Amino acid sequence: MNVACKLTLSYALRHPARMLLTSLAMIASACIVVWVVSGYDALASQFGRQAAEYLGRYDFFIVPEDPKAPFLDMDLVASLQKDPDVAEVTPVTQQPTRVVNPNTFPDMDDGPGGPGRRISPLPLGEGPGVRAGRGQRQSGNVLSAHRPHPNSLPKGEGTGPRRGAPAGGRQGGRPPLRFFVPVSPTLVGTDAASPPYPMVKGTWIDPKHPERRGAVIGKNAAEQLDLKLGDEALVIFGPKEFQIKIAGLIEEGPSQMGMGRRMRPPGSDASRTGIEAGPASSAIYVPLALAKHFTRDQAKINLINVQLKPEAKARTAEFRKKWEVQIAKARPIASLLGVEDIKSGMEEGMMGSRVKQQAWAATGLSLLAALFIIFTTLSMGVTERVRQFAVMRAVGLTRGQVAQVIAAEGILLALIGWGGGLLAGWALLAFSASRQPGLFSAGATVGLGCILFTGLSSLGGALAGSLLPAWRSMSVQPLEVLSPHRLLRPNCFWTVFSGAVGLALIAVNPILVFVAPSSFSLDSDNIYYIYMAVGCTTMAVGFLLLTPATIVIVERLLGPVVAWILRFEPRLLRNQLGSNLWRTLGTTTALTVGLGLFVSMQIWGYSMLEPFKPGDWNPDVLVSLQRGGLPDAEIRAVQATAGIRAGRCIPLAVEQPKLASDITGSEGRQSVIQQNNVIMIGLDPEAALSGDDPLLDVKFVEGSAKEAIAKLKQGRYCIVPDHFLRATKLKLGDSFSLIPPNLSPLRAPRSGRGEGQGVRGASPIRTVKYTIIGAVKLPGWHWMTKFSGLRKREGRSAAMVFANYDDVQKDFALRQVNFFWMDVDPGYGAKHMDEAVQVARRLKDEAKAHRPTFGPPTEEDKPLDAQQAAVLLVGDALQKIAERHPGEKQPVNMQGTWTGPAIMFGESVRITTPEIIFDRITGRAGSMIWASCTLPLVTLLITSLGVVNTVMASVRARRWEFGVLRSQGVTRWGLFRMILAEGLLIGLITCVLSLGFGVFSGWCGTGISQYVSFFGGLNPPLVIPWLPLAFGFGLTLLLCLAAALYPAVATGRTEPLRLLQEGRAAL
Amino acid sequence: MNASCHSASPLQIEHLTKCFRQGEAVIEALRNVSLTIRRGEFVVVMGASGSGKSTLLHVMAGLTRPDGGKVAVDGEDLAAMADSDLTRFRRRRIGLVFQAFNLIPTLTARDNVLLPLLADGRGDSAEGRLNDLLDRLDLRKRAAHRPDALSGGEQQRVAIARALIAQPSIVLADEPTGSLDSVTGQGICRLLQEMCREQQRTIVVVTHEPAVAVWGQRIVVLKDGRVLTEFPTAQFADVHALAAHYQDIVSAP
Asked: Using an 8 Å Cβ cutoff, are A893 and A792 in contact?
């Protein structure tokens, strides 16, 4: 047997406890990888099947590759049809559209022609016309059965029955289609004779009879829209709507979302190319002629499906080779895609890449854990065996052979970790799957990914962890055989030097993140790559270099404190860790991998959260009336409501218009500050901003309240959040334009406002311009608008913008009041607490009857405070006012209808308070932050096994010393405390290092997030969440104490004589 | 390589110097030492503490390099060898015995003995020789035991067996009885003497004990890093006479 193997095996057998602990740590570390990577394996195993499902009955599809020419050459169709291997070539057009179910809304029952009305099929070629409105017979060509959106058609184009709609009233009984963001399946025009996927119900479209308006819809889209066979639906394309009839439901292919190489911003108008342009999963199929008509012939062919003959299926590779080149030469540029392309697209796509990222993250962490576990174990071995290595060198082992001994030990541990981790991971997955079958949505498989990733983490960690110990063992001189046991006392110069270099390296990352981007005008991609490649590396190496100094400093400063707490002589603890620098360094670094990441995640998470927490600028209550609205005459009634503080209630005019140009850069990248719209809040500037205690207590970072009030009164000025200026690069005095929403059901001019024609009939590109007069800090505006109903048109917005009430009302043709900001009087709540409790109970009962959850203030087990009582009483009173003015549902984003983050009074009044939002956001964000901390905490647990090893080694190395102490009168209990203190000191060093690492990496993380994260751009402050951190530190100290417990007990129980004998016997 | 292949003196030392630095101070451990040891000779190097005798042994073993002069084993200059060559040379030509035994605690006695051959990739080629040695040193029954289960005398016998297993040209022993009681120590000395006589081994023992020195054929006395004198042991009737003579030499101004 090779000498290195013999020595390795003999060493492993001689130290079974150490090997067992290290092996367990390695196995646990590999087990994490199996747990995470099994998800990727399971997903990857589905890709093949899903790719075939995605293609449906076809074998290939051809898609455009040039975003500037997103359609296909029709000559390709003709050429392909001539190929003897081809059974079918189907040209297809796919266009984004919106579909709504008119029967979903009760308002549809108003007037004749409500739900259930049927429109007769009409022959093609009949005269132009529009879809019949309620109470009118439909006439004209069904292909012309569109109805222009009010206010959006050029003059002269028919608007059908809308023309006669009474101002301000129900619009001719037309369904209020735009209450919710409609479901958006892709409109697929095809003349295929049979469906691409299996039919669920009904029949496939008849391409020969487009006039029947028969459509086939994906079953999931149908479920979402509550559409059944035979139902009518409205397809919205641009400003027009078209009726179709559901002739069939079809299975849907796997989602395209996972396949794109990069995420396209939702709603992006940019053309899809490559694999993204493949068959739509959520689709509504219509004959090609019908699709072309809907789109006014804009729908060109952008997909060609190809099916091979059965006898040619075995020759798909040859077919592909034959046509690939030919198709690539086509103009516009196109590409031929088959199962393998889709499979690789899925692997590279969102879902695959996200799971792959998780797999890499787990592997990285596991690798680091393995690295330091092995480093610690081997370092201990080298330190203990200096004389052995010297003997080996003296009797003739070369340096290489000595290094081989260390390397072989590392590889042995890695192999145990690899094999054991795979076995343990497999057992864990099997056990978990049997106990909780729903735990793994995509399945859990120990596949090739698991084997490779665990191997990478185990062997990579072992290799890296063995390098330094191997080098140290090689440096042992034969003469050291005659030296007494060598203590590696910290060399002062090198400790200081290494610490200084470490600090310098640590400073690199903040400079790169916070200084370099502005100084060198770097783009966000470059900033991110530099941060990852240079910043993170230098920071990690910097902290590693700083570790020896930290060990020495903490030992000197906190050692006496620990000794004092545990009541023993501090000199007995002096230099114990510093003298065994390598193993202490390995252990503390291993623990810091877990704890440091935990601290970093917590600091990053809570710092990023800070700008989203509702700030003090918010008034007490935001009221939204989600049905109908109040006429101006009722404003005073609201303001006079008991419980509202006098003079502290203002109506708001709210709209969410699109920006006329992409000043936020949302087309390039979307984020919380880069969106294509803003939320305009019209308010009375004097009532909102003036005085020492303004209702809207915003802090101006540019401009002043006084100046802003004056300008806002003049009209067409606005106040924006500070981040809006950063995102748009606008300055005070600059202007931006907005497009009044052209789909608002509130388009009709307000009676009695003297606004003339309103925006009906206006051009859809009409814009309104506002000039910025001030910039304010608005922490938490995102979540305040998210759940309150202020987001009327879009799910996200770039900013909350304050303008004059009259300007907003006029520019966006708002006819009624739907929002109020107000402060409530807690004194009133205290005085009428009993009534408030009654209101709370009533709301609770209503919530039980209608909704599964309800807002926090009404929970019975939570006593109401005076403020909450006032809110409830005010809400109750406003409900009565609102019910006097019933009306249509108001447009709102989906979260604006959720019950949890607001209190609903009846069907209309929705009250949002900063407190409720605060609870909501901190609860949700907190759970997300903790979820992301799971992996670091598991790593911490695993690496704590290394502490047991270190303390055991330290104890073994000092058995003679302990024997002497015992013989000189130190009690068992005293010895026990000394050893515990050592474990505690390791924990303290880890905490100090982790805090430093966490603060810097968390801080830099928030910095880089401003450039690359969806949630970036708000310049969050550095927040150190001490409570969660205390949990992490406490856990670490407990683990270290627990790790020291066994060695402490075992040593304490050993007789002094045995300690002396064993100590002398040790080399 | 077998020692019998070499006709030259197994150990030739010429004008050897070796210095150590201790802070600013330079200590000359060996000063112009010259020495020739013949094949099959049992030489004892004596001297007081700090006389340089251990340093001389370390230089002879190639454990450290001289600052000047030449050390030739079997005619090959150790100072001229690269580290790897020196290691291989030491593995095959030099046997070392330490005062503190220095066995590998994780290996059995048998494997400890075989260690130089294992390092040379010849672990399985010396079964006969190993058994002979174990029998000769009365270790057969203890072969499967680890060092911590052996007595001091047994550990030192294992160390001697390890030094002999590769059939080196020369065996260097540094205070081989220093950690042993007198009876066991005498047994070890007898063993070394028998090796020398029966197998024509060249043995160099460093000691300050006359009771050990008396087993040798020639004694070299070092003082302050120089060879003070050398004389054969045969002229002394017993160890007391040798001790008195040695004392006279060392005490002389």
From this structure: yes
The total of structural domains in chain B comes to 1
Q: Do B58 and A479 touch (CB under 8 A)?
A: yes
**How many residues would you count in chain A?**
1067
The whole-angstrom separation of Cα B96 and Cα B159 is 8
Domain boundaries defined on chain A: 1-52+359-486, 60-337, 557-620+918-1067, 621-912
The whole-number average pLDDT for the span A342-355 is 65
* Disruptive mutation site among A384, A385, A395, A483 for chain B (greatest number of B CBs within 10 Å): A395
Please tell me the number of Cα atoms within 13 Å of A1014 on its side-chain side. 7
A975 sits in the region (left: phi over 0; alpha: psi -120 to 50; else beta) called alpha
From A40-54, A245-259, A452-466, A847-861, the region with the lowest mean pLDDT: A847-861
What are the tens digits of pLDDT across the range A244-261? Answer: 999 999 988 766 544 444
CA gap A572, A554 in Å, rounded: 16
Check: CB of residue B76 under 8 Å from CB of residue B83. no
* B83 interaction partners in chain A (CB closer than 8 Å): 399
- Min mean pLDDT across A352-356, A523-527, A758-762, A930-934 is at A758-762
For residue range B32-86, list pLDDT tens digits in order: 999 999 989 999 999 988 899 888 998 998 888 899 999 999 889 988 888 788 8
Residue ranges of chain A whose CB lies within 8 Å of a chain B CB: 1-3, 6-7, 10-11, 13-14, 387-388, 390-399, 401, 477-479, 481-482, 1065-1067
Residue in the structure block whose two tokens are 């690899």: A418
By DSSP bridging, strand B42-47 and strand B202-206 are: parallel
Query: Which chain B positions have a beta carbon within 8 Å of A480's beta carbon?
Result: none
Residue B209: give the domain boundaries.
Answer: 3-103+168-251
Let me know if residue B185 belongs to a domain: yes
Q: If you count residue pairs, one on A and one on B, with CB atoms under 8 Å apart, how many are there?
A: 90
Helices (H) and strands (E) in chain B, counts: 8, 10
- A498 versus A163: which is more confidently predicted? A498
Peptide bond into A437 cis (omega under 30): no
SS3 of A92, please? strand
Tell whether B82 is covered by a domain. yes
H or E element at residue A342: helix A339-348
The CATH number of the domain holding residue B199 is 3.40.50.300
Question: Which tops the pLDDT comparison, A438 or A901?
Answer: A901
* B33 located within any domain: yes
Which of helix, strand or coil describes residue B95? strand
Q: Which residue has the higher pLDDT, A562 or A343?
A: A562
Is B111 within 8 Å of chain A by CB?
A: yes
Residue A273: predicted pLDDT = 55
Note the ipTM here.
0.71
Whether residue A847 has pLDDT greater than 90: no
Work out the average pLDDT over B205-215. Answer: 91
Of A1052, A1060, A1046, the residue nearest A953 (C-alpha): A1046
Residue B216 belongs to some domain of the structure: yes
C-beta atoms surrounding B80 within 10 Å? 11
Question: What is the secondary structure of B183-194 as a DSSP string?
Answer: HHHHHHHHHHHH
Q: Residues with Cβ < 8 Å from A956, sequence gap 6 or more?
A: A384, A1066
Mean per-residue pLDDT for A842-858? 58
Question: Where are the alpha helices (H) located in A851-967, listed in sequence order?
Answer: 866-883, 914-932, 934-957, 959-967
Note whether A76 and A334 are within 8 A (CB).
Answer: yes
B84 touching chain A per CB within 8 A: yes
What sign has the CA pseudo-torsion A1026, A1028, A1030, A1032? negative
- Give the number of C-alpha atoms closer than 13 A to the C-alpha of residue A901, restricted to the C-beta side: 23
C-alpha distance from residue A821 to each of A715, A717, A1053 (Å): 21, 20, 72
Alpha-helix runs per DSSP H in A56-94: 75-82
